[in-house]
Amino acid sequence: MAPSAIQHAPDPATVSVALVQLASDEDEPPQDRVERALALSSHAASSAGFVILPELWLAGAFDVHGSGRLAQPLDGPLVQQFQELAARSQTWIHMGSIAEREDGLTFNTSVLINAQGKVLCTYRKLHLFGFEGGELEVMTAGEELVVATTPAGRTGLATCYDLRFPEQFRSLVDLGATAFFLASGWPAERIEHWRILLKARAIENQAWMIACNGVGTQCGTKLGGRSAVIDPLGHVIAEAGTEEEVLFAQVNPSAATTWRTEFPTLRDRR
């Protein structure tokens, strides 16, 4: 059976998303980066219903020790500023991930804020990166999968290295996910893995993949950008370059259900 065409032109059924591919260079003071992230997110919110940022953008994904030093609780000033922006602009904001401090532990935590400025849910990264970067030394792994009901559909949350573990995404589908939000700090030297795996997770799960990567250099590692929106058939709807930018795209939440009905591979699992 040949893949059917899915319409991506803006219409009342679509949701606009903006991926803020933020630069996190180690010579920028954290407060300056917060102000810049808020400004870029505000600009994005003027044209989109969803704004999404990268993983650990405050210090940069590969400056994990720096992230640990900047960790704060979920009711701290960083989250509050994005809550205020979400409420003011009436836009959903996925903050990417931040270093969350709770009870003496630090987590790599994604924060999803609704258009009323309320933290709808959080996701603590399950798969910590043990190869390089020190994440295992600083962070504590999460223990729970998270799927939230959003205007983009039932949306599963994941972070960076999680992408290499397909069973996590299939488990999110088992919980009802028809779309994935992925915040990342993926390095340039393995960016082709990123591009292939994003497509694979979308195709095998017949789900939207909305993935925001960072750019910039931390601790000698350059991030690769290439944030992307990929539809449930694996078509790249939009892809960023390798520098800081805001990427806009339209997502039709019903496309996943349509494709799963027309080509029901998930039904044939054993």
UniProtKB/TrEMBL annotation:
Domain CN hydrolase: 15-253
PROSITE patterns xrefs: CN_HYDROLASE, UPF0012
Pfam families: CN_hydrolase (PF00795)
Classification via Gene3D superfamilies: Carbon-nitrogen hydrolase
PANTHER family for this protein: DEAMINATED GLUTATHIONE AMIDASE, NITRILASE-RELATED
Protein name per the record: Unannotated protein
Species: freshwater metagenome
